[in-house]
TrEMBL record, chain A:
[4Fe-4S] cluster binds at residues 26, 51, 111. This is Light-independent protochlorophyllide reductase subunit N. CDD domains: Pchlide_reductase_N (cd01979). Binds 1 [4Fe-4S] cluster per heterodimer. The cluster is bound at the heterodimer interface by residues from both subunits. It holds the Pfam family Oxidored_nitro. Transmembrane segments: none annotated. Its EC number is 1.3.7.7. Belongs to the BchN/ChlN family. It catalyses: chlorophyllide a + oxidized 2[4Fe-4S]-[ferredoxin] + 2 ADP + 2 phosphate = protochlorophyllide a + reduced 2[4Fe-4S]-[ferredoxin] + 2 ATP + 2 H2O. One of its GO terms (molecular function) is oxidoreductase activity, acting on the CH-CH group of donors, iron-sulfur protein as acceptor. It comes from Synarthrophyton chejuense. The keyword Iron-sulfur applies.
From TrEMBL, chain B:
It is an enzyme of class 1 (oxidoreductase). It holds the Pfam family PCP_red. This is Light-independent protochlorophyllide reductase subunit B. Its cofactor is [4Fe-4S] cluster. Transmembrane segments: none annotated. It comes from Synarthrophyton chejuense. One of its GO terms (molecular function) is oxidoreductase activity, acting on the CH-CH group of donors, iron-sulfur protein as acceptor. Its EC number is 1.3.7.7. Signal peptide: none annotated. NCBIfam families: DPOR_BchB. Pathway: Porphyrin-containing compound metabolism; chlorophyll biosynthesis (light-independent). The gene is chlB. Binds 1 [4Fe-4S] cluster per heterodimer. The cluster is bound at the heterodimer interface by residues from both subunits. Keywords: 4Fe-4S, ATP-binding, Chlorophyll biosynthesis, Iron, Iron-sulfur, Metal-binding, Nucleotide-binding, Oxidoreductase, Photosynthesis, Plastid.
Length: 438, 509
């Protein structure tokens, strides 16, 4: 059992904001999972060599599998407007149409297109009608967004494309307003969540995104929408303001506690009585006992880079861990309201200190705090993982949480599998001290 | 605009950062949007498994910077790092995004210099004209000349030559392909030649040591991509001779040592390295003997293609053709800026020279050539996988497996052993090859399309099945597949011994 250092006894969640000097992935990385999710799409990232090099390295071996993405690499002539943006994009998109025949082309705007003020939103509709393929523009750039927020910009743009229809028949079995779930999840995970809701008598009208562009869900005003991921605030805003839907603000279905709260909240809003959710949650918890035993009383520090931090911290506190700090790139207190409330409730229930939430963290200062606090686990990006390990600090690479299935009851185990890995490594290599760097 | 899926050389700032992070106690500050610090931070920590935090910070360009300019932000970041880390030098590094903003970064550098103990320079590279490799060459020159000029003006330059012959090794950098192993091997080589190593630049040295550069008798540039500009500058301004023959492969090493010998003789130190070269070639390197052995004999006339950076692609091409009698059908590089040199190096050693940075063109060429083995980058390795052609990785860009823990130099005499192993292991082993010839030849491209599974063994009559089990394990599946495919194509309901032989014949024709 590790000694827990009680820094201060916070009664409430505290929010801080630092300098924003932190390490994270560029939001264009969303291309790597979205092109796989939306199977008939093609992603064209309009940027420079820097963007291309990042994607090429961040995607690892995926890049060799002929991905449905490419760079429109800007050259000097594009920057100085010696070349015509419209003509250039038309040439590339025609080539893509010919080679890959996608149902939709996404243009991902980057820092460079922002700075030179390339009018992607203006060019797209014209070109769309000329070459006869839908073109969706998302500005996922490092000037404005971090990592997973890239998906948010793409889904927000996609929300405009969802068809609208006259409500002809409030279908037979339908006892509630249509419900659309937003957030990109692997198909198997989406299926699991859909089934969980169905067992409560809730019919999921559709998912944004769907696994094909041509199957985008119908969204009408007055429909309910609910998010599965904490980084989708723009999408939520767009669905509310532009599509006139009603947002169900719920905790996110990460961990058994989150999943059951998510389902319960949806039931409540739709005026359905939740059936057997608590028992289901209990059962999942009891199946996780070998992991929670390992985690109990251990401390964790989130450096912050993918916006999943609050939900993960809440789940880990429910597992018996103590969270010192939740670093997070951006905190939308309205969209994450229910999640923050649940975090607070969980802290009280588990009788642990309220963690400090640090928005736009400063990695340098954080390393200082880590040195002082000596947490049992630091969840961080790859840039700091090896140097921290060399200093005897256990780390878990945060990006893995983005790429692994972590949602729903069934995948709670996967989250803990990731979190406990360094701890299990330590117990199987008890003499690990020999590599530590003082 | 250019449609691009893959690039061989990275953007310019990567080159600058690789140089900066190679020095000891030099900090780079990138003027860049969030996420651009990916490469050096992550790659250094991951690929090189570095135990220290990468000395790179971003001065983040965000919306506010777009609206109002960086104002004090860059300066504050520089002075903050100056206090926190106490670096000797801060290199302010623009990125392709920030260079369009056209902020007066030079002005920031000047102003930050007042408040900082560290020296501060602005990396001077055009992001839309040079790539990673060219930028690293330029940045190295920039730092070296900055410190030599500085020493000159404060009369601290050490120009007195060392008593014994000495050398500066210039151009081993972080994230370079097997650079650290190469460096050890070079140190060993110079120790053997009784030449002192004055400085290794930039790998692990302090910028304050740079003033000692002129003390060396000559400079040594092991790689074509980085260090050439610095060597020319030192030749011009300090009259220092240099050797830039890549010591990769027996013949090249010998040429390189002879060039060193000539320089030393010119400088009045008469040395004769011929017996050393002879001894090393015969006893330390196994590669010369390998060329003579029957293993290598089996490689005679095999077809290979080579692609990579100028240094490695040219050297490997020469080794294949002059030391192993392998036929290099074409040899190519993505270092377009160095095309003339590359052509001159390899044109007598291959049928065709390819200069391109388009991987689809390279892939098409490989498919068209259908070589027995490929020597290239990670991209060619994956092309090879698709086409079922073995590939030895000889050049960047690379993956984590190309940062091996064990000692794997490419340069020097130990390097020749490593390369011989790499080449030999890449070709189908001689015996296996022989057996394949006997039982059905290479039809890798066809068999990929075959959907026959291995469960269909009820086709086989006992006699044939027994014959099949006699075939050595590692080729058995292939022969089984070939035979089944043959039976399928000819609508045979059963596979007998006869079918096997017919299939073999059909495959040979």
């Amino acid at each position: 059992m590790t000694f827990i250092k009680q820094t201060q006894n916070n009664q409430d969640l505290t929010f801080e904001c630092e300098t924003g000097n932190y390490h994270t992935f560029c939001p264009i990385s969303c291309v790597s999972w979205l092109y796989q999710k939306i199977e008939d799409s093609f992603f064209l990232v309009i940027g420079t060599k820097t963007c291309g090099y990042f994607l090429q390295n961040a995607m690892g071996v995926m890049i060799f599998a002929e991905p449905r993405y490419a760079m429109a690499e800007l050259e000097e002539g594009d920057i100085s407007a010696q070349l015509n943006d419209y003509e250039e994009l038309k040439r590339l998109c025609l080539q893509i149409k010919q080679d890959r025949q996608p149902s939709v082309i996404f243009w991902i705007g980057t820092c460079t297109t922002e700075i030179i003020k390339m009018d992607l939103e203006g060019i797209a509709p014209k070109l769309e009608s000329e070459i006869n393929i839908p073109i969706v523009v998302a500005r996922a750039n490092g000037l404005d967004y971090a990592f997973t927020q890239g998906e948010d910009t793409v889904l927000a743009a996609l929300a405009h494309r969802c068809p609208k229809k006259e409500q002809v028949n409030m279908s037979i079995s339908q006892k509630h307003e249509p419900l659309i779930i937003f957030g990109s999840l692997p198909n198997s995970v989406a299926k699991q969540l859909t089934l969980d809701l169905e067992s409560q008598g809730i019919h999921v009208t559709g998912w944004l995104p769907s696994s094909n562009y041509i199957d985008l869900p119908i969204i009408n005003s007055g429909n309910y929408v609910v998010g599965v991921n904490p980084f989708l605030s723009r999408t939520a805003t767009t669905l509310m303001r532009r599509r006139k839907t009603k947002l169900i603000v719920a905790p996110f279905p990460i961990g058994p506690d989150g999943t059951s709260a998510w389902i319960e909240k949806i039931c409540n809003v739709l005026n359905l009585k939740p059936k057997g959710i608590k028992q289901r949650e209990k059962k999942i918890w009891s199946s996780l006992i070998e992991y929670t035993e390992l985690l109990k009383g251990k401390s964790v520090f989130f450096m912050g880079d993918n916006l999943l931090e609050v939900s993960l911290a809440r789940f880990l506190i429910a597992c018996g861990m103590v969270v010192y700090e939740i670093g997070i790139p951006y905190m939308d207190k309205r969209y994450q309201k229910a999640e923050l409330d649940l975090l607070e409730k969980t802290c009280i229930k588990m009788d642990v200190m309220m963690p400090k939430i640090v928005e736009k963290p400063d990695n340098y200062n954080q390393l200082d705090r880590i040195k002082d606090l000596k947490p049992d686990l630091v969840i961080t990006g790859m840039a700091h993982a090896n140097p921290l390990e060399a200093r005897g600090v256990n780390t878990k690479w945060s990006v893995e949480f983005t790429f692994s299935p972590i949602h729903g009851f069934t995948n709670s185990r996967d989250v803990l599998e990731l979190v406990t890995r360094p701890l299990r490594r330590n117990s199987s290599l008890p003499n690990l001290d020999f590599v530590e760097k003082i | 605009m250019k449609l691009a899926y893959w690039m061989y050389a990275g953007p310019a700032h990567i080159g600058t950062l690789r140089i900066a992070s190679s020095f000891n106690n030099v900090h780079a500050i990138m003027h860049a949007p969030l996420g651009d610090d990916y490469f050096v931070n992550v790659m250094k920590s991951m690929l090189e498994r570095d135990r220290d935090f990468a000395p790179v910070t971003a001065s983040v360009v965000d919306r506010h910077v777009l609206a109002r300019g960086s104002q004090e932000k860059v300066i504050n970041n520089i002075t903050r790092k100056d206090q926190e880390e106490k670096p000797d030098l801060v290199v302010l590094t623009p990125t392709c995004t920030s260079s369009i903003l056209q902020e007066d970064l030079k002005n920031f550098v000047d102003r930050a210099s007042f408040d900082s103990l560290a020296d501060i320079i602005l990396a001077d590279v055009n992001h839309y004209r040079v790539n990673e490799l060219q930028a690293s060459d330029k940045t190295l020159l920039q730092i070296v000349s900055f410190y030599l000029e500085k020493a000159k003006s404060s009369d601290q330059l050490k120009i007195l030559k060392t008593r014994k012959p000495s050398v500066n090794i210039i151009g081993t950098v972080s994230l370079g392909f097997h650079n650290h192993h190469d460096l050890l091997e070079l140190k060993r080589l110079f120790l053997d030649l009784d030449i002192q190593i004055n400085l290794v630049i930039p790998d692990g040295i302090s910028v304050h040591e740079l003033k000692k550069i002129p003390q060396a008798w000559f400079n040594f540039i092991p790689y074509r991509e980085v260090g050439g500009l610095t060597a020319s500058y030192l030749k011009q301004d300090f009259n220092m001779p240099f050797v830039d023959i890549v010591p990769m492969g027996i013949l090249q090493i010998s040429k390189c040592i002879h060039a060193i010998q000539e320089i030393l003789i010119d400088l009045g130190n008469s040395v004769d390295y011929s017996s050393y070269i002879k001894n090393q070639t015969q006893f330390v390197s196994q590669s010369a003997w390998f060329s003579r052995s029957i293993d290598c004999q089996n490689l005679t006339g095999k077809k290979a293609v080579v692609f990579g950076d100028a240094t490695h692609a040219s050297a490997i091409t020469k080794i294949l053709s002059s030391e192993m009698s392998i036929k290099v059908v074409w040899s190519g590089t993505y270092c377009i800026n160095d095309a003339v040199w590359f052509k001159e190096q390899v044109q007598d050693h291959c049928d065709q020279v390819v200069i391109s940075d388009d991987h689809t063109l390279v892939a098409d060429l490989i498919a068209e050539t259908d070589p027995n083995a490929i020597f290239g980058t990670q991209m060619e390795r994956h092309i090879g996988k698709r086409l079922n052609i073995p590939c030895g990785v000889i050049s960047s860009p690379v993956h984590i497996q190309n940062f091996p823990l064990s000692y794997r130099p490419f340069l020097g005499y130990e390097g020749t052993n490593q390369i011989a192993d790499l080449i030999y292991n890449s070709f189908t082993l001689g015996m296996e090859d022989h057996l394949l010839e006997i039982f059905g030849g290479h039809d890798t491209s066809d068999s990929k399309n075959s959907t026959l599974s291995s469960i269909s063994s009820d086709l086989w009559v006992d006699e044939a099945l027994e014959e099949l089990t006699k075939i050595p394990g590692f080729v058995r599946n292939k022969i089984k597949k070939n035979t089944e495919k043959f039976a399928h194509e000819n609508n045979l309901k059963q596979i007998t011994l006869e079918t096997m032989y017919l299939a073999k014949e059909a495959n040979q024709s």
